[in-house]
């Protein structure tokens, strides 16, 4: 490639002259000899057949059905130390990431996966707390970063296995109602929507047992637990209007919920108040909170709602991608193009191979549809925190399948 | 005399053959430390692309996909001024081509003397790679990716094979993207004071076929290396959250025009890799003049500002 580029460029002063601008003779000879050595050694290795280890072995990423990485979900849950006191219950226990924060005072569980995986998840959490916990080994709190079924499914099972510290009126109330267990926190809007969805019924309506027990409405809710500050940041109108991100300040870990999705485009649940500009505001908030180590690597670690762990370096690129797609859609929408016309223009074509789910939430179609529908008819093409427009949700009925 | 000369000549030929064959026959792996020391890149290969350039939207000779071209056409060099991107180092997909001194060293097990790791450190942007030479647990799918990736290596004769994955999404200074699914396979070998790196990058999303390039380094006996501190700050006053980018329809082409690269060829693609493509290039129409391009660019920038 290099020589081709070099020879092409050498033709600049004399159009379409492809004279060879090769390096000095010795280096060229060395490269040729080196190539011969390479070919020879490759042939020897192939003949010996002795290299069974994968150490240094090439992987053909272009082979039919080739996968560079093993599937994320193997049906098991693998506790993985993220940093400080925070663990990722990896293996996606029911599609969404679950984080556990363990210390002397007990544990906080961030999201609870889907209902079917709850017993398995609980067993792993209890084992982790026994091994890593201090004097108190109870699950004290659960935080739901949103109210979607893959984030609240294990609420009942895990809450019942936990125990919050209560006294006085709260204790009396719990005794009278027969309630107990861990507190389940979420934003007020999560509870509002769950109540409405449960009342409306339907095959996917959550049961009351999955509702949060404690809700807050602040933009930032602070607590001190296990010797460090824990902050719940409300990412208003990001994926949903009740989206939370949880910062463990001492451990330097953020559980970002669905604000970041490393397996597909983020779900912008318009029916639940999600908007693309709210999503970008949340991403920029994360960029403000996260502090990278040298060379923009490590430092604050971020647990996405789905997929692998990331740091600010990944988050920066993710934000660039999402902002780019949003700006293109606003550019087309300003020209009066309909949703179908914008979909036909494929404004995310350069990222779909990596980020589009095959169908449903996270697919390019649903993502672009959500972006289009939550941007104004005429708006500033280039997103900024100052110009962000959040079109309020008009529906309270769940639309997510 | 002639008999003696003949025997001497024969011995010399045998010795030469032995020396030559030793270069081609795999050697015992436990004695390798071929990379240790300081190495300076030789500038004759792609020197322009990595020092003066690369020019935006000049991808002639590169097997990029249409998706990669779209990313690159959208990319604005101003992104490098965003505080969140200022201190990002060159990734392993790009670093070995950088024109910067490299230090390489090995670690050995103190008991077995087995080589356990080879590390490289490039001065510019402090690119630090670790190549594991003994079996390591593969990082799981949920582990974070890094700029330099996860590398394992082995010696095959005098050639070091290295495979790298778990890389972060990276864009070059020309906006050429590599996804976080990219992998690289390398061969490192030394010839006296010359060190050769041949790298093959695979990234089906952004490269329609593996992209192979080579790089030469020359040994520096008394090399030194400066530290590379980097702190991000506001370099350009712009609204918070704004990302510099080019909107659809706006493609910066002054680089290819200045260099006489036909615009069709500058779009790259694997057909542009092959020598016979040069014949086809001669049939392509002339580029617009640089003035025409510059005038159009000024108009596009004004329009973008209006947006």
Measured between the Cα atoms of the first and last residue of chain A, the distance is: 48 Å
Examine the coordinates and then state which fold CATH places here, giving the name of the CATH topology of the domain at 37-58 and 75-220 in chain B.
Lipocalin
CATH class of the domain at 78-324 in chain A equals Alpha Beta
In DSSP terms, counting alpha (H) and pi (I) runs of 4 or more, how many helices of chain A? 12
Characterize the structure shown.
The complex is a heterodimer of chains A (401) and B (307). In chain A, α3 runs parallel beside α5 and α8 packs antiparallel against α9. Chain A has a domain of 247 residues: Metallo-beta-lactamase, Chain A. Chain A has a seven-stranded mixed beta sheet with strand order 1-2-3-4-5-6-7. A five-stranded mixed beta sheet of chain A has the order 8-9-10-11-12, covered by helices on one side. With 401 residues, chain A is α/β, with parallel strands linked by helices. The N terminus and C terminus of chain A are likely disordered. In chain A, β2 and β3 form a beta hairpin. Chain B is an alpha+beta fold. Chain B has a domain of 168 residues: Lipocalin (Beta Barrel), CATH 2.40.128.20. Chain B has eight helices and eleven strands. Chain B has a nine-stranded mixed beta barrel with strand order 1-2-3-4-5-6-9-10-11. Chain B has a two-stranded antiparallel sheet with strand order 7-8. Chain B is globular and about 70 Å long. The N terminus of chain B is likely disordered. The interface between A and B is large, with 101 and 105 residues.
């Amino acid at each position: 490639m290099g020589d081709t580029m070099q020879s092409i460029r050498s033709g600049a002063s004399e159009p379409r002259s492809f004279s060879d601008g090769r390096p000095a003779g010795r280096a060229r000879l060395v490269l040729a000899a080196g190539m011969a050595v390479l070919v020879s050694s490759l042939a020897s290795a192939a003949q010996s057949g002795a290299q069974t280890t994968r150490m240094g072995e090439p992987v053909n990423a272009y082979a039919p059905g080739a996968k560079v990485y093993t599937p994320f979900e193997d049906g098991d849950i693998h506790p993985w130390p993220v940093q400080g006191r925070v663990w990722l219950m990896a293996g996606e226990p029911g599609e969404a990431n679950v984080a556990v924060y363990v210390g002397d005072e007990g544990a906080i569980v961030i999201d609870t996966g889907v209902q079917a995986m709850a017993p398995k998840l609980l067993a792993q959490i209890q084992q982790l707390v026994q091994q890593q916990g201090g004097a108190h080994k109870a699950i004290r709190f659960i935080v739901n970063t949103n109210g979607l079924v893959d984030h609240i499914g294990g609420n009942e099972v895990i809450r019942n296995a936990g125990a919050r510290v209560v006294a006085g009126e709260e204790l009396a109330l719990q005794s009278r109602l027969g309630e107990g267990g861990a507190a389940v926190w979420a934003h007020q809007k999560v509870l509002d929507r769950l109540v409405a969805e449960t009342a409306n019924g339907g095959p996917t309506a959550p049961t009351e047992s999955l509702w949060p027990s404690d809700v807050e409405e602040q933009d930032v809710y602070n607590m001190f637990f296990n010797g460090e500050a824990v902050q719940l940041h409300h990412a208003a109108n990001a994926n949903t209007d009740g989206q939370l991100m949880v910062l463990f300040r001492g451990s330097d870990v953020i559980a970002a919920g669905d604000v970041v999705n490393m397996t597909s485009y983020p779900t912008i649940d318009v029916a639940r108040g999600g908007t693309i500009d709210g999503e970008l505001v949340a991403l920029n908030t994360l960029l403000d909170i996260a502090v990278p180590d040298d060379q923009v690597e490590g430092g604050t670690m971020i647990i996405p709602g789905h997929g692998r762990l990331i740091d600010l370096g990944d988050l920066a690129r993710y934000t660039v991608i999402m902002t780019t797609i949003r700006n293109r859609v606003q550019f087309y929408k300003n020209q009066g193009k309909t949703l179908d016309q914008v979909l036909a223009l494929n404004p995310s074509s350069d990222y779909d191979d990596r980020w589009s789910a095959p169908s449903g939430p996270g697919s390019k179609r649903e993502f672009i549809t959500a972006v289009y529908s939550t941007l104004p008819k005429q708006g500033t093409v280039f997103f900024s925190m100052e110009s962000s427009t959040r079109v309020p949700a008009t529906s309270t009925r769940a639309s997510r399948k | 005399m002639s008999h003696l000369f003949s025997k001497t000549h024969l011995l010399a030929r045998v010795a030469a053959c032995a020396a030559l064959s030793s270069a081609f026959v795999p050697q015992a792996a436990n004695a390798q430390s071929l990379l240790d020391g300081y190495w300076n890149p030789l500038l004759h290969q792609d020197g322009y692309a990595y020092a003066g350039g690369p020019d935006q939207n000049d991808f002639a000779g590169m097997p990029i996909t249409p998706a990669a071209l779209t990313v690159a056409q959208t990319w604005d060099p101003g992104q490098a001024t965003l505080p969140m991107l200022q201190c990002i180092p060159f990734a392993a997909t790009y670093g070995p081509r950088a024109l910067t001194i490299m230090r390489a060293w090995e670690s050995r097990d103190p008991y077995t003397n087995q080589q356990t790791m080879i590390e490289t450190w490039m001065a510019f942007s402090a690119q630090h790679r670790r190549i594991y030479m003994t079996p390591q647990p593969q990082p799981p799918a949920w582990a974070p990716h890094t700029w330099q990736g996860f590398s394992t290596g082995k010696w095959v004769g005098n050639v070091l094979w290295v495979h790298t994955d778990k890389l972060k999404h990276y864009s070059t200074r020309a906006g050429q993207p590599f996804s976080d699914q990219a992998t690289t396979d390398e061969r490192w070998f030394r010839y006296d004071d010359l060190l050769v790196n041949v790298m093959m990058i695979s990234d089906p999303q952004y490269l329609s076929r593996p992209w192979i390039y080579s790089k030469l380094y020359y040994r520096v006996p008394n090399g030194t290396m400066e530290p590379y501190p980097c702190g991000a700050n506001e370099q350009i006053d712009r609204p918070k959250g704004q990302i510099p980018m080019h909107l659809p329809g706006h493609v910066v082409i002054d680089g290819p025009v200045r260099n006489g690269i036909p615009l069709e060829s500058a779009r790259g693609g694997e057909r542009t890799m092959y020598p016979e493509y040069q014949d086809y290039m001669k049939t392509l129409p002339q580029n617009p003049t640089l003035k025409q391009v510059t005038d159009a660019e000024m108009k596009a920038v004004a329009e973008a500002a209006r947006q």
